[in-house]
Design goal:
Radius of gyration: 19 Å
Mean pLDDT: 80
Strand order of the largest sheet: 1-2-5-6-8-11
Helix content: 25-40%
Structural class: alpha+beta
Distance between the termini: 43 Å
Oligomer: single chain
Number of strands: 11
Largest sheet: 6 strands, mixed
Low-confidence stretches: 142-147
Length: 203
């Protein structure tokens, strides 16, 4: 009931395929023994600022595949994130392990690089974030001005951000796709929403 999936295939010369995925609700739980957080990610419920339509799915993904080209549409309802530093480090290490961030090339990476995204559309995604730091960077990281390490010690409370609507065309490979999406969101936050980040810093 909470997960719907549909695939259509049209027998033509270019063999067109469509894939639809709808997820009613998504929950990510934090099971770190040291963490005070239990629900790390869920739907952000707020009937005043963004009332949810009846039976609206939290995540909807549509993919159209013709030959070796893909057209993608992604829609995500507002997201509530409550996370601490240990969980962030765990996710970062996992992404490195599967070669999504800073890993070495593998045969699977080469296959992913051959994927051509004709277009992708992602709606604007509202996020409400709480972040709890656990430890301070060492002095060498501070001297070297490793920005991410320094920012990781800043606590955030009820920080509201919007990941801007994103449209990209003619992207080769998943690594470049994720990089472009992250760059679009990061640049928009730094240019237009930095004041919200400062307002969300706990004293």
């Amino acid at each position: 009931e909470d997960l719907q999936c549909r695939t259509d295939i049209r027998a033509q010369e270019d063999e067109q395929r469509t894939f639809r995925l709808a997820i009613k609700n998504v929950y990510v739980y934090d099971h770190f023994a040291s963490s005070l957080v239990r629900t790390a990610l869920s739907y952000w419920s707020d009937e005043q600022t963004h009332p949810r339509e009846t039976n609206a799915n939290m995540i909807r993904i549509y993919v159209r595949n013709v030959s070796s080209e893909y057209q993608i549409r992604v829609s995500v309802l507002p997201v509530r994130v409550n996370i601490d530093q240990d969980a962030v480090l765990c996710v970062t290490r996992f992404l490195k392990h599967v070669n999504l961030v800073g890993g070495e090339k593998s045969s699977s990476n080469e296959e992913e690089d051959s994927i051509f995204i004709r277009s992708i559309n992602i709606n604007a995604i509202k996020i409400k974030l709480d972040y709890v730091p656990r430890r301070f960077p060492n002095m060498s990281q501070i001297r070297e001005m490793q920005v991410l390490e320094i920012l990781s010690v800043i606590p955030l409370e009820k920080l509201e951000l919007v990941l801007c609507e994103t449209r990209l065309d003619s992207i080769s490979g998943l690594e470049r796709l994720f990089s472009e999406i992250g760059s679009n969101w990061g640049n928009d936050v730094m240019r237009k929403q930095l004041h919200r980040c400062l307002a969300g810093v706990q004293a």
